[in-house]
């Protein structure tokens, strides 16, 4: 969401424009929707009021652009959606916020303080990792407490762990300074000496699991330091080792939670964007990116309005943007047929629960693993089958913010990594069985009587 992300978004749009050819006849059949002259200056239209769209809009607006964001839903946030029913406020998407300094920098670039818009609380431990036999490890940001935990959990790796963290720190610095915050607009950008040197240091041919295994020997500590690649939808056995930086970021910079839930972050960005003069148009789905020759010139929305602007920013996933907003002809190597053949990351089955009288000593975040770590990952990421002993991320945000549920109740968010829709699974038939399997495992591992205590549920 920081400056590096905006560059990625804008560079993707530039690439889209370069690939486009011909004119879009829909442009000539639609109504033009231009900004009022009073707004003046350069004008931009953004598709999607997710975090990336809001962030890009904020940076454009603070530089004097007239910015319109088109959002199909009636609220901002994109995947950061929220259920607000029967006294429960449940985040539907991300629950773990990392690197808050990136968000602080966004507000500071506009002369604002993040603390005036949002209250963040650091979660410590960041999460607990649990196994079916009762073993657990709290991933703590305090080096002293982490050392004490490892002395009992993996004494053979007590001295190796700090060295591994130092290696992960190096990966983080290399990735951030040589890749994340660098623009890639040309072949020349790809062959910069610093970029090539950074690529060598990243060891792209080694997997995260192999990298971690070279530095620690305890099998469960390896699991606790590699499952994070599932955030990216990838198995640590296949994910490039550059992403071994994830546990370091969690330990060094912390895992944070916004007061009111993670959806409060989207609301804070929306408020800042509007204060800068930006406009969000809800219930306004984009149907086509309009082209003038090889240039993206505007966006067509339902009802026939054409939002013609100097710049078009599209915050949809790239495959979605291509398949839904551009005709096949201009896309060349990104046709619907070729997009369908691409390999995509794993998915997630989510349960959003309101629970009364929850008997459980679990912290805000708990990672539930299985006895067959590799097999579960292969089932989810490679074979496309449901694991018999599912892994889970369990978030109980009411541990930090009790106002998210009625008195005497808790919010329990359960995410089960599972195969994506390329697997051909019949979800109507299989989802109930996965639900039973997940809840039964949670009851066995520390939430007795969970199923009988659920008073609110969505999935």
**Structural class from helices and strands?**
alpha/beta
Label the overall shape. globular
Sketch the major β-sheet.
7 strands, mixed
The chain-level mean pLDDT equals: 89
Record the strand order, biggest sheet.
9-8-17-18-19-16-20
Cα(first) to Cα(last) distance is: 27 Å
Helix content: 25-40%
Low-confidence stretches: 1-29
Please tally the helical runs, counting DSSP H or I stretches of 4 or more residues: 16
- Could you give the count of β-strands? 20
Radius of gyration: 23 Å
Question: Percent of residues in beta strands?
Answer: 15-25%
Describe this structure in words.
- The chain is an alpha/beta fold and 459 residues long.
- The protein is built from 16 helices and 20 strands.
- It has helices at residues 3-19, 51-62, 100-108, 143-153, 160-180, 187-190, 193-202, 208-213, 219-224, 245-253, 263-275, 318-325, 336-340, 373-383, 427-445, 450-453; strands at 31-32, 43-47, 66-70, 82-85, 88-91, 97-98, 120-123, 127-130, 136-139, 255-258, 279-281, 286-292, 295-301, 305-308, 311-314, 347-356, 365-368, 392-395, 409-418, 454-458.
- The protein has a 7-stranded mixed beta sheet.
- A hairpin with a 3-residue loop joins strand 13 and strand 14 (305-308).
- Helix 2 runs parallel beside helix 11 (263-275).
- The protein is globular.
- The chain starts with a helix and ends with a strand.
């Amino acid at each position: 969401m920081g400056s590096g992300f905006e560059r990625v978004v804008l560079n993707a749009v530039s690439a889209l424009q370069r690939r486009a050819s011909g004119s879009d006849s829909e442009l000539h059949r639609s109504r033009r929707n231009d900004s009022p002259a009073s707004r003046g200056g350069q004008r931009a239209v953004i598709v999607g009021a997710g975090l990336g769209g809001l962030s890009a809009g904020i940076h454009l607006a603070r530089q004097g652009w007239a910015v319109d964001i088109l959002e199909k839903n009636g609220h901002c946030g994109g995947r950061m959606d929220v259920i607000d029913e029967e006294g429960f406020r449940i985040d539907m998407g991300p629950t773990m916020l990392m690197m808050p300094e990136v968000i602080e920098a966004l507000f500071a670039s506009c002369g604002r303080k993040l603390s005036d818009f949002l209250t963040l609380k650091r979660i410590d431990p960041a999460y607990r990792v649990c196994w079916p036999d009762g073993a657990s490890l709290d991933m703590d940001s305090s080096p002293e407490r982490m050392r004490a935990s490892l002395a009992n959990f993996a004494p053979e790796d007590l001295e190796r762990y700090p060295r591994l963290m130092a290696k992960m720190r190096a990966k983080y610095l290399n990735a951030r300074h040589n890749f994340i915050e660098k623009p890639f607009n040309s072949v020349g950008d790809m062959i910069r000496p610093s970029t090539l040197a950074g690529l060598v240091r990243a060891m792209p041919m080694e997997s995260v699991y192999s990298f971690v295994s070279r530095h620690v020997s305890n099998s469960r500590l390896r699991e606790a330091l590699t499952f994070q690649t599932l955030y990216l939808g990838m198995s640590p056995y296949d994910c490039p080792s550059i992403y071994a930086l994830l546990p370091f970021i969690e330990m060094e910079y912390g895992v944070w939670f916004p007061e009111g839930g993670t959806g409060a972050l989207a609301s804070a960005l929306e408020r800042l964007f509007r204060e800068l003069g930006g406009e969000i148009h809800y219930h306004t789905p984009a149907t086509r990116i309009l082209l003038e020759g090889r240039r993206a010139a505007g966006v067509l929305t339902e009802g026939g309005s054409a939002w013609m602007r100097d710049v078009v920013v599209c915050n949809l996933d790239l495959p979605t943007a291509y398949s839904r907003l551009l005709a096949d002809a201009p896309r060349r190597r990104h046709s619907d047929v070729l997009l369908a053949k691409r390999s995509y990351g794993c998915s997630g089955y989510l349960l959003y629960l309101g629970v009364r009288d929850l008997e459980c000593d679990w912290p805000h975040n708990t990672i539930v693993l299985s006895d067959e770590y590799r097999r579960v990952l292969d089932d989810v990421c490679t074979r496309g089958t449901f694991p018999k002993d599912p892994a889970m991320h369990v978030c109980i945000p009411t541990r930090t913010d009790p106002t998210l549920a009625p008195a005497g109740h808790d919010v329990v968010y359960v995410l089960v990594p599972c195969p994506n829709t390329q697997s051909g699974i019949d979800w109507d038939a299989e989802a109930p069985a996965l639900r039973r399997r997940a809840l039964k495992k949670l009851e066995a591992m520390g939430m007795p009587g969970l199923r009988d205590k659920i008073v609110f549920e969505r999935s």
